[in-house]
Protein backbone atom coordinates (compact mmCIF):
# COMPACT_ATOMS: atom_id res chain seq x y z
CA UNK A 1 0.00 0.00 0.00
CA UNK A 2 1.47 3.25 -1.16
CA UNK A 3 1.23 6.84 -0.10
CA UNK A 4 2.73 9.98 -1.62
CA UNK A 5 4.04 12.87 0.48
CA UNK A 6 4.49 16.18 -1.28
CA UNK A 7 6.00 19.50 -0.32
CA UNK A 8 3.57 22.40 -0.80
CA UNK A 9 5.39 25.61 -1.73
CA UNK A 10 7.25 25.41 -5.03
CA UNK A 11 5.57 22.09 -5.82
CA UNK A 12 1.83 22.85 -5.77
CA UNK A 13 1.60 26.55 -4.91
CA UNK A 14 4.01 29.52 -5.15
CA UNK A 15 6.23 30.45 -2.18
CA UNK A 16 3.56 31.91 0.11
CA UNK A 17 5.60 34.73 1.73
CA UNK A 18 6.98 35.91 -1.60
CA UNK A 19 3.52 35.84 -3.20
CA UNK A 20 2.06 37.58 -0.14
CA UNK A 21 4.76 40.29 -0.26
CA UNK A 22 3.91 40.91 -3.91
CA UNK A 23 0.12 40.91 -3.47
CA UNK A 24 0.29 43.11 -0.36
CA UNK A 25 3.06 45.37 -1.65
CA UNK A 26 5.14 44.92 1.54
CA UNK A 27 8.63 44.47 0.08
CA UNK A 28 10.23 43.80 3.50
CA UNK A 29 8.38 40.49 3.63
CA UNK A 30 10.50 39.13 0.80
CA UNK A 31 13.22 38.32 3.32
CA UNK A 32 13.67 34.53 3.48
CA UNK A 33 15.75 31.94 5.34
CA UNK A 34 18.56 32.78 2.92
CA UNK A 35 18.79 36.25 4.51
CA UNK A 36 17.94 35.19 8.06
CA UNK A 37 18.77 31.51 8.68
CA UNK A 38 17.20 31.48 12.17
CA UNK A 39 13.59 30.57 11.39
CA UNK A 40 12.15 31.76 14.69
CA UNK A 41 13.87 35.16 14.30
CA UNK A 42 12.65 35.40 10.73
CA UNK A 43 9.09 34.69 11.80
CA UNK A 44 9.34 37.26 14.61
CA UNK A 45 10.56 39.81 12.02
CA UNK A 46 7.62 38.94 9.74
CA UNK A 47 5.06 39.13 12.55
CA UNK A 48 6.41 42.55 13.63
CA UNK A 49 6.01 43.87 10.08
CA UNK A 50 2.50 42.48 9.77
CA UNK A 51 1.59 44.17 13.05
CA UNK A 52 3.10 47.50 11.90
CA UNK A 53 0.94 47.33 8.79
CA UNK A 54 -2.11 46.37 10.86
CA UNK A 55 -2.55 43.06 9.06
CA UNK A 56 -4.77 40.65 10.96
CA UNK A 57 -4.91 36.96 10.16
CA UNK A 58 -8.18 37.50 8.27
CA UNK A 59 -6.51 40.18 6.08
CA UNK A 60 -3.62 37.84 5.36
CA UNK A 61 -6.01 35.02 4.50
CA UNK A 62 -7.89 37.31 2.13
CA UNK A 63 -4.64 38.10 0.32
CA UNK A 64 -3.63 34.42 0.23
CA UNK A 65 -7.06 33.52 -1.18
CA UNK A 66 -5.99 35.46 -4.29
CA UNK A 67 -2.81 33.46 -4.69
CA UNK A 68 -3.44 30.72 -7.21
CA UNK A 69 -1.97 27.20 -7.11
CA UNK A 70 0.72 26.62 -9.74
CA UNK A 71 -0.59 25.97 -13.23
CA UNK A 72 -1.66 22.35 -13.55
CA UNK A 73 -1.24 21.61 -9.83
CA UNK A 74 -4.93 21.00 -9.15
CA UNK A 75 -5.28 18.69 -12.15
CA UNK A 76 -2.13 16.79 -11.13
CA UNK A 77 -3.39 16.39 -7.58
CA UNK A 78 -6.83 15.25 -8.78
CA UNK A 79 -5.24 12.50 -10.88
CA UNK A 80 -2.92 11.52 -8.05
CA UNK A 81 -5.75 11.25 -5.51
CA UNK A 82 -7.65 8.97 -7.90
CA UNK A 83 -4.54 6.76 -8.02
CA UNK A 84 -3.29 6.63 -4.42
CA UNK A 85 -3.27 8.39 -1.05
CA UNK A 86 -1.57 11.77 -0.71
CA UNK A 87 -0.44 13.86 2.25
CA UNK A 88 1.11 17.29 1.88
CA UNK A 89 4.01 17.84 4.29
CA UNK A 90 4.82 21.50 4.77
CA UNK A 91 6.57 23.85 7.18
CA UNK A 92 3.95 26.53 6.56
CA UNK A 93 1.06 27.27 8.92
CA UNK A 94 -2.40 25.74 8.63
CA UNK A 95 -4.00 29.21 8.78
CA UNK A 96 -2.03 30.28 5.67
CA UNK A 97 -2.49 26.95 3.91
CA UNK A 98 -6.29 26.93 4.28
CA UNK A 99 -7.18 29.35 1.42
CA UNK A 100 -4.87 27.32 -0.85
CA UNK A 101 -6.13 23.93 0.32
CA UNK A 102 -9.65 25.13 -0.49
CA UNK A 103 -8.54 25.77 -4.09
CA UNK A 104 -6.83 22.37 -4.27
CA UNK A 105 -9.91 20.45 -3.06
CA UNK A 106 -8.86 19.99 0.59
CA UNK A 107 -6.01 17.50 0.37
CA UNK A 108 -4.75 16.45 3.80
CA UNK A 109 -1.85 18.60 5.00
CA UNK A 110 0.49 18.18 7.97
CA UNK A 111 2.02 21.56 8.88
CA UNK A 112 2.46 23.99 11.77
CA UNK A 113 0.14 26.57 13.26
CA UNK A 114 -0.03 30.16 14.44
CA UNK A 115 -0.95 31.71 17.73
CA UNK A 116 -3.45 34.54 17.16
CA UNK A 117 -4.00 37.18 19.85
CA UNK A 118 -7.35 38.65 20.89
CA UNK A 119 -7.07 41.42 18.29
CA UNK A 120 -6.69 38.84 15.49
CA UNK A 121 -2.95 39.56 15.01
CA UNK A 122 -0.22 36.90 14.76
CA UNK A 123 1.60 36.66 18.08
CA UNK A 124 3.59 33.43 17.90
CA UNK A 125 4.21 30.23 15.95
CA UNK A 126 3.64 26.67 17.10
CA UNK A 127 5.80 24.02 15.48
CA UNK A 128 4.08 20.63 15.57
CA UNK A 129 7.35 18.78 15.92
CA UNK A 130 10.99 19.22 14.85
CA UNK A 131 11.98 17.58 11.52
CA UNK A 132 8.28 17.22 10.83
CA UNK A 133 8.59 15.99 7.26
CA UNK A 134 11.08 13.22 7.97
CA UNK A 135 9.21 12.11 11.08
CA UNK A 136 5.94 11.95 9.17
CA UNK A 137 7.51 9.63 6.58
CA UNK A 138 8.93 7.45 9.36
CA UNK A 139 5.50 7.28 11.00
CA UNK A 140 3.80 6.31 7.72
CA UNK A 141 6.37 3.58 7.10
CA UNK A 142 5.86 2.29 10.64
CA UNK A 143 2.16 1.68 9.93
CA UNK A 144 2.81 -0.30 6.76
CA UNK A 145 2.98 2.23 3.94
CA UNK A 146 5.49 2.33 1.10
CA UNK A 147 6.18 6.06 0.80
CA UNK A 148 7.07 8.14 -2.27
CA UNK A 149 8.20 11.71 -1.50
CA UNK A 150 8.88 14.79 -3.60
CA UNK A 151 9.88 18.39 -2.93
CA UNK A 152 12.13 21.21 -4.08
CA UNK A 153 13.99 22.50 -1.01
CA UNK A 154 16.64 21.69 1.57
CA UNK A 155 13.95 20.92 4.13
CA UNK A 156 12.61 18.20 1.79
CA UNK A 157 15.83 16.24 1.47
CA UNK A 158 15.49 14.24 4.71
CA UNK A 159 11.91 13.35 3.76
CA UNK A 160 12.92 12.19 0.28
CA UNK A 161 15.85 10.17 1.62
CA UNK A 162 13.73 8.57 4.35
CA UNK A 163 11.05 7.53 1.83
CA UNK A 164 11.08 4.27 -0.15
CA UNK A 165 11.12 6.25 -3.38
CA UNK A 166 11.13 9.86 -4.47
CA UNK A 167 12.59 12.65 -6.50
CA UNK A 168 13.23 16.37 -6.54
CA UNK A 169 10.64 18.54 -8.25
CA UNK A 170 11.73 21.84 -9.85
CA UNK A 171 14.63 22.14 -7.42
CA UNK A 172 17.01 25.10 -7.74
CA UNK A 173 20.55 24.78 -9.12
CA UNK A 174 22.34 24.70 -5.75
CA UNK A 175 20.33 21.68 -4.60
CA UNK A 176 20.81 19.86 -7.89
CA UNK A 177 24.56 20.38 -7.51
CA UNK A 178 24.79 19.12 -3.93
CA UNK A 179 22.32 16.22 -4.36
CA UNK A 180 23.47 14.66 -7.59
CA UNK A 181 22.17 11.20 -6.69
CA UNK A 182 18.53 12.35 -6.52
CA UNK A 183 16.58 12.38 -9.74
CA UNK A 184 14.82 15.55 -10.87
CA UNK A 185 11.42 16.02 -12.42
CA UNK A 186 10.08 19.35 -13.66
CA UNK A 187 6.65 18.52 -15.12
CA UNK A 188 3.56 17.15 -13.35
CA UNK A 189 2.97 14.49 -16.01
CA UNK A 190 6.49 13.15 -15.47
CA UNK A 191 6.01 13.17 -11.70
CA UNK A 192 2.77 11.21 -12.13
CA UNK A 193 4.55 8.66 -14.33
CA UNK A 194 7.33 8.30 -11.77
CA UNK A 195 4.76 7.67 -9.03
CA UNK A 196 2.91 5.12 -11.19
CA UNK A 197 6.20 3.29 -11.77
CA UNK A 198 6.84 3.32 -8.01
CA UNK A 199 3.38 1.89 -7.29
CA UNK A 200 3.76 -0.85 -9.89
CA UNK A 201 7.41 -1.57 -9.08
CA UNK B 1 -2.49 20.91 16.12
CA UNK B 2 -5.47 18.62 15.80
CA UNK B 3 -6.49 15.84 13.48
CA UNK B 4 -9.68 13.80 13.32
CA UNK B 5 -9.72 10.09 12.47
CA UNK B 6 -13.03 8.63 11.39
CA UNK B 7 -14.27 5.15 10.70
CA UNK B 8 -15.82 4.80 7.22
CA UNK B 9 -18.63 2.23 7.19
CA UNK B 10 -21.55 3.13 9.42
CA UNK B 11 -20.14 6.62 9.92
CA UNK B 12 -19.87 8.10 6.42
CA UNK B 13 -21.10 5.34 4.11
CA UNK B 14 -23.30 2.24 4.55
CA UNK B 15 -21.74 -1.15 5.35
CA UNK B 16 -20.17 -1.88 1.97
CA UNK B 17 -20.69 -5.69 1.85
CA UNK B 18 -24.33 -5.41 2.94
CA UNK B 19 -25.02 -2.68 0.40
CA UNK B 20 -23.17 -4.66 -2.27
CA UNK B 21 -25.18 -7.80 -1.47
CA UNK B 22 -28.38 -5.80 -1.86
CA UNK B 23 -27.39 -4.00 -5.07
CA UNK B 24 -26.02 -7.19 -6.65
CA UNK B 25 -28.77 -9.47 -5.35
CA UNK B 26 -26.25 -12.01 -3.95
CA UNK B 27 -27.80 -12.81 -0.56
CA UNK B 28 -24.88 -15.04 0.52
CA UNK B 29 -22.67 -11.96 0.73
CA UNK B 30 -24.66 -10.70 3.71
CA UNK B 31 -22.60 -12.98 5.93
CA UNK B 32 -20.52 -10.83 8.32
CA UNK B 33 -17.94 -11.25 11.08
CA UNK B 34 -20.86 -12.01 13.39
CA UNK B 35 -21.46 -15.24 11.44
CA UNK B 36 -17.80 -16.00 10.68
CA UNK B 37 -15.45 -14.39 13.23
CA UNK B 38 -12.28 -15.40 11.32
CA UNK B 39 -11.83 -12.44 8.97
CA UNK B 40 -9.49 -14.21 6.54
CA UNK B 41 -11.93 -17.14 6.21
CA UNK B 42 -14.83 -14.73 5.72
CA UNK B 43 -12.94 -12.92 2.97
CA UNK B 44 -12.05 -16.23 1.28
CA UNK B 45 -15.75 -17.16 1.39
CA UNK B 46 -16.68 -13.81 -0.17
CA UNK B 47 -14.00 -14.06 -2.87
CA UNK B 48 -15.19 -17.57 -3.79
CA UNK B 49 -18.76 -16.33 -4.19
CA UNK B 50 -17.67 -13.37 -6.30
CA UNK B 51 -15.71 -15.74 -8.55
CA UNK B 52 -18.73 -18.09 -8.87
CA UNK B 53 -20.84 -15.16 -10.01
CA UNK B 54 -18.08 -14.00 -12.38
CA UNK B 55 -17.72 -10.65 -10.64
CA UNK B 56 -14.48 -8.91 -11.53
CA UNK B 57 -13.12 -5.99 -9.52
CA UNK B 58 -14.43 -3.58 -12.18
CA UNK B 59 -17.96 -5.05 -11.84
CA UNK B 60 -17.79 -4.69 -8.08
CA UNK B 61 -16.58 -1.10 -8.38
CA UNK B 62 -19.46 -0.33 -10.74
CA UNK B 63 -21.92 -1.62 -8.16
CA UNK B 64 -20.20 0.27 -5.35
CA UNK B 65 -20.30 3.45 -7.45
CA UNK B 66 -24.09 3.28 -7.05
CA UNK B 67 -23.88 3.09 -3.27
CA UNK B 68 -24.40 6.57 -1.88
CA UNK B 69 -22.67 8.00 1.20
CA UNK B 70 -24.98 8.35 4.19
CA UNK B 71 -27.30 11.35 4.08
CA UNK B 72 -25.43 14.46 5.19
CA UNK B 73 -22.02 12.71 5.26
CA UNK B 74 -20.49 14.74 2.42
CA UNK B 75 -21.69 18.05 3.90
CA UNK B 76 -20.36 17.06 7.34
CA UNK B 77 -17.01 16.08 5.88
CA UNK B 78 -16.79 19.32 3.86
CA UNK B 79 -17.32 21.38 7.01
CA UNK B 80 -14.86 19.27 8.95
CA UNK B 81 -12.13 19.61 6.30
CA UNK B 82 -12.55 23.38 6.38
CA UNK B 83 -12.00 23.22 10.14
CA UNK B 84 -9.16 20.72 10.62
CA UNK B 85 -7.33 17.75 9.11
CA UNK B 86 -9.16 14.46 8.63
CA UNK B 87 -8.01 10.90 7.93
CA UNK B 88 -10.43 8.03 7.45
CA UNK B 89 -9.24 4.83 9.12
CA UNK B 90 -10.95 1.74 7.74
CA UNK B 91 -10.51 -2.02 7.51
CA UNK B 92 -12.02 -2.03 4.03
CA UNK B 93 -9.97 -2.22 0.81
CA UNK B 94 -8.80 0.78 -1.16
CA UNK B 95 -10.27 -0.69 -4.36
CA UNK B 96 -13.75 -0.80 -2.77
CA UNK B 97 -13.33 2.57 -1.07
CA UNK B 98 -12.37 4.43 -4.25
CA UNK B 99 -15.87 4.86 -5.76
CA UNK B 100 -17.06 6.15 -2.37
CA UNK B 101 -14.05 8.42 -1.80
CA UNK B 102 -14.78 9.96 -5.21
CA UNK B 103 -18.29 10.86 -4.00
CA UNK B 104 -16.89 12.26 -0.75
CA UNK B 105 -14.34 14.52 -2.49
CA UNK B 106 -11.26 12.30 -2.01
CA UNK B 107 -10.59 12.53 1.71
CA UNK B 108 -7.40 10.69 2.73
CA UNK B 109 -8.06 7.09 3.75
CA UNK B 110 -5.78 4.53 5.38
CA UNK B 111 -7.09 1.03 4.68
CA UNK B 112 -6.10 -2.36 3.22
CA UNK B 113 -5.85 -3.58 -0.34
CA UNK B 114 -6.77 -6.46 -2.61
CA UNK B 115 -4.74 -8.75 -4.81
CA UNK B 116 -6.30 -8.94 -8.26
CA UNK B 117 -5.40 -11.81 -10.63
CA UNK B 118 -4.75 -11.51 -14.36
CA UNK B 119 -8.45 -12.07 -15.14
CA UNK B 120 -9.43 -9.11 -12.95
CA UNK B 121 -10.85 -11.33 -10.16
CA UNK B 122 -10.11 -10.93 -6.45
CA UNK B 123 -7.54 -13.53 -5.40
CA UNK B 124 -6.29 -12.39 -1.98
CA UNK B 125 -6.29 -9.59 0.58
CA UNK B 126 -3.34 -7.60 1.83
CA UNK B 127 -3.62 -6.14 5.32
CA UNK B 128 -1.43 -3.04 5.69
CA UNK B 129 -0.72 -3.79 9.31
CA UNK B 130 -2.42 -5.46 12.28
CA UNK B 131 -4.47 -3.16 14.57
CA UNK B 132 -4.21 -0.56 11.82
CA UNK B 133 -6.57 1.98 13.37
CA UNK B 134 -4.93 2.08 16.80
CA UNK B 135 -1.44 2.15 15.28
CA UNK B 136 -2.36 5.04 13.01
CA UNK B 137 -3.53 7.10 16.00
CA UNK B 138 -0.31 6.25 17.85
CA UNK B 139 1.73 7.34 14.82
CA UNK B 140 -0.17 10.63 14.51
CA UNK B 141 0.33 11.37 18.20
CA UNK B 142 4.04 10.59 17.85
CA UNK B 143 4.41 13.35 15.24
CA UNK B 144 2.74 15.99 17.40
CA UNK B 145 -0.97 15.76 16.69
CA UNK B 146 -3.81 15.85 19.20
CA UNK B 147 -6.17 13.21 17.84
CA UNK B 148 -9.97 13.03 17.99
CA UNK B 149 -11.44 9.68 16.88
CA UNK B 150 -14.94 8.44 16.17
CA UNK B 151 -16.47 5.20 14.96
CA UNK B 152 -19.33 2.76 15.52
CA UNK B 153 -17.82 -0.73 15.82
CA UNK B 154 -15.71 -3.01 17.99
CA UNK B 155 -12.72 -2.43 15.74
CA UNK B 156 -12.96 1.31 16.47
CA UNK B 157 -12.71 1.04 20.25
CA UNK B 158 -8.91 0.80 20.46
CA UNK B 159 -8.60 3.82 18.14
CA UNK B 160 -11.04 5.90 20.20
CA UNK B 161 -9.35 4.91 23.48
CA UNK B 162 -5.86 5.63 22.10
CA UNK B 163 -6.94 9.10 20.89
CA UNK B 164 -6.82 12.27 23.00
CA UNK B 165 -10.55 12.69 22.55
CA UNK B 166 -13.39 10.89 20.82
CA UNK B 167 -16.84 9.39 20.89
CA UNK B 168 -18.96 6.64 19.43
CA UNK B 169 -21.11 7.52 16.43
CA UNK B 170 -24.38 5.64 15.87
CA UNK B 171 -23.03 2.59 17.68
CA UNK B 172 -25.29 -0.45 18.14
CA UNK B 173 -26.87 -1.38 21.46
CA UNK B 174 -24.34 -4.10 22.38
CA UNK B 175 -21.42 -1.66 22.14
CA UNK B 176 -23.26 1.02 24.10
CA UNK B 177 -23.87 -1.53 26.84
CA UNK B 178 -20.27 -2.74 27.08
CA UNK B 179 -18.62 0.70 26.66
CA UNK B 180 -20.66 2.83 29.02
CA UNK B 181 -17.83 5.33 29.63
CA UNK B 182 -17.69 6.42 25.96
CA UNK B 183 -20.05 9.17 24.91
CA UNK B 184 -22.38 8.63 21.96
CA UNK B 185 -23.33 11.00 19.16
CA UNK B 186 -25.90 10.19 16.50
CA UNK B 187 -26.08 13.35 14.35
CA UNK B 188 -23.36 14.96 12.23
CA UNK B 189 -24.03 18.42 13.64
CA UNK B 190 -23.46 17.13 17.16
CA UNK B 191 -20.27 15.35 16.10
CA UNK B 192 -19.03 18.59 14.55
CA UNK B 193 -19.78 20.49 17.77
CA UNK B 194 -17.94 17.86 19.80
CA UNK B 195 -14.90 18.17 17.54
CA UNK B 196 -15.01 22.00 17.75
CA UNK B 197 -15.06 21.76 21.55
CA UNK B 198 -12.07 19.37 21.39
CA UNK B 199 -10.13 21.78 19.17
CA UNK B 200 -10.88 24.75 21.41
CA UNK B 201 -10.47 22.82 24.66
Largest interface: A-B, 31 and 30 residues
Number-wise, the strands of chain A total: 7
Please give the share of residues in helix of chain A. Answer: 40-55%
Structural class of chain A: alpha/beta
Count of alpha and pi helical runs of chain A? 9
Tell the overall outline of chain A: globular
Overall pLDDT confidence of chain A: 95
- How large is the share of residues in beta strands of chain A? 15-25%
Distance from N terminus to C terminus of chain A (CA atoms, Å) equals 12 Å
H-E order of chain A:
EHHHHEHEEHEHEHEH
Multimerization state? homodimer
Radius of gyration of chain A: 17 Å
Primary descriptors:
homodimer, about 200 residues, alpha/beta, seven-stranded mixed β-sheet, about 45% helix
SSE layout and pairings?
The structure is a homodimer of 201-residue chains.
Chain A lengths: L1 E5 L9 H9 L14 H14 L4 H8 L8 H11 L1 E9 H10 L4 E9 L5 E5 L5 H11 L3 E6 L2 H9 L2 E5 L3 H6 L5 E2 L2 H13 L1
Helix pairs in contact in A: 3-5, 4-9, 6-7
Précis, in short:
The structure is a homodimer of 201-residue chains. Chain A is of the alpha/beta class and 201 residues long.
Explain what you see:
- 2 copies of one chain form a homodimer.
- The first copy, chain A, is α/β, with parallel strands linked by helices and 201 residues long.
- Chain A is 45% helix and 20% strand.
- The first copy, chain A, is built from 9 helices and 7 strands.
- Chain A has helices at residues 16-24, 39-52, 57-64, 73-83, 94-103, 132-142, 154-162, 173-178, 188-200, and strands spanning 2-6, 85-93, 108-116, 122-126, 146-151, 165-169, 184-185.
- A 7-stranded mixed beta sheet of chain A has the order 4-3-2-1-5-6-7, with helices on both faces.
- In chain A, β2, α5 and β3 form a beta-alpha-beta unit.
- In chain A, α3 runs parallel beside α5 and α4 packs parallel to α9 (188-200).
- Chain A starts with a strand and ends with a helix.
- The A-B interface holds A 1, 78, 81-82, 85-87, 94, 98, 102, 105-113, 126, 128-129, 132, 135-136, 139-140, 142-145 and B 1, 78, 81-82, 85-87, 94, 98, 102, 105-110, 112-113, 126, 128-129, 132, 135-136, 139-140, 142-145.
- Chains A, B: Keywords: Amino-acid biosynthesis, Hydrolase, Magnesium, Metal-binding, Serine biosynthesis.
- Chains A, B: Its EC number is 3.1.3.3.
- Chains A, B: Mg(2+) binds at residues 7, 9, 152.
- Chains A, B: One of its GO terms (cellular component) is cytoplasm.
- Chains A, B: Pathway: Amino-acid biosynthesis; L-serine biosynthesis; L-serine from 3-phospho-D-glycerate: step 3/3.
